[in-house]
Specification:
With about 170 residues, the protein is an alpha/beta fold. It has helices at about 15-25, 40-50, 80-105, 120-130, 150, 155-160; strands at about 1-5, 30-35, 55-60, 65-70, 110-115, 135-140, 165-170. It has a domain at about 1-40 and about 90-170: Rossmann fold (3-Layer(aba) Sandwich), CATH 3.40.50.620. It has a 5-stranded parallel sheet, with helices on both faces. It has a two-stranded antiparallel ribbon with strand order 3-4. Helix 1 crosses helix 3 and helix 4 packs across helix 6 (about 155-160). The longest helix is centred in the middle third of the chain and has 26 residues, at about 80-105. The two termini are about 25 Å apart. The mean pLDDT is about 80.
C-alpha cells in the first residue's frame, strides 16, 4: 500500500508516523508531501523597494544580452527569481517535513519526500494522489486556513473530493 502523508508542519509527527507505518505495512511505501505557497507578490515588492518602478518591466536574459521589456506581470522573469523560489521551497519543505521524516525513520521507514509549489493545497494534494499513485492519504484535521470556518479545511475538502480514502488525524 502506498500512503501519502500531506503535512503543513502541524501534524503530530509521532502519531502521523505511527498510523502511516501501520497502514503501509512492511511492504508498503510512504510519501511525505508538503504544498508550499510561494509569495510571488513579495518578489515584486522587494524589486520595487530596491529598483523603484522598474517592477513593471520584465527582464529577458540569454547568453549574450539582458533585455528589459515592458510588461504587466511584474511577479516573474527576473534573474535570480528561480533561485530564490527554489531556496524558499527547500527551506519551507524541510521545516514542515523533517520532524515527520525523523519519526518515520524510527519506525524503520525511509519515506519519499515531495515538496510542491501551489496556491491551493487541496488541488495540489489531489494532483499528487494521482501523480504518485497513492492508495490512501493521511492529513491533520487542523490547519492554518484563514477562512477555514467559512470555506472548510483542506482535510474536509479532501474527504469529499479524493479518489482514495482519507485518514484525518486529529491534533492531540
Amino acid at each position: 500500500m502506498h500512503v501519502l502523508i500531506a503535512t503543513d508542519g502541524e501534524l503530530d509527527p509521532a502519531l502521523g508516523a505511527d498510523l502511516a507505518a501501520k497502514l503501509a505495512g512492511p511492504e508498503g511505501r510512504i510519501t511525505v508531501l508538503s504544498v508550499v505557497e510561494v509569495p510571488r507578490r513579495l518578489l515584486a515588492d522587494l524589486r520595487k523597494g530596491f529598483f523603484g518602478d522598474i517592477t513593471e518591466q520584465a527582464v529577458t536574459v540569454d547568453h549574450e544580452t539582458v533585455t528589459i521589456q515592458e510588461t504587466v506581470d511584474s511577479t516573474s522573469g527576473w534573474p535570480g527569481d528561480d533561485a530564490m523560489i527554489e531556496r524558499y521551497l527547500s527551506d519551507q519543505g524541510k521545516t514542515r517535513t523533517e520532524p515527520l521524516i525523523a519519526e518515520l525513520r524510527t519506525h524503520g521507514v525511509e519515506p519519499e519526500v515531495v515538496i510542491r509549489e501551489g496556491e491551493s493545497p487541496t488541488s495540489s494534494i489531489l494532483a499528487a494522489i494521482t501523480d504518485l499513485g497513492a492508495d490512501v492519504v493521511c492529513i491533520g484535521s487542523h490547519g492554518k486556513g484563514l477562512f477555514e470556518g467559512l470555506l472548510g479545511s483542506v482535510g474536509t475538502k479532501l474527504t469529499r473530493l479524493a479518489p482514495v480514502p482519507v485518514l484525518l488525524i486529529r491534533k492531540r
